[in-house]
Amino acid sequence: MNKVFLSGNLTRDPEVRYTQTGKAVARMGIAVRRPYSKENATDFFNMTAWDKTAEFCQRYLTKGSRVLVEGRLQTYSYEGKDGTTKSGVDIQIDNIEFAGGKREGGGDSESRPSYGNNSASRQNSSSSFDDDFVGEDISDDEVPF
User: What pLDDT, on the 0 to 100 scale, is given for residue 132?
Assistant: First the structure.
């Protein structure tokens, strides 16, 4: 099983490009703290989102946004300009959501949009997110699941 869960802050704004077939691809980075290490270190990872998840990231996330990410590790290799083979690891995002904090107004995550492959996100993807949705309070009675 290849599954990772990360909580951290984006290190740069999501950069969206489109493939020749029209699929959206967003690249961004995340900083994840290691709170139990003696030196209180931070790890940095590159992440990739595809299709509607990529468009969601571009629309709602910016550098510094605190997010929760569910995804999988994917290795890659390429030939560098100096002719040597270089390799790395990328996080392929399956689900992403706001984690709160001062930028998003805190509170619980049900009032903030998330996007990905889980069932709640699939229900949200059938209707488009409006700018008015961010920060809107939703009572438990209004949630269909």
Answer: 39
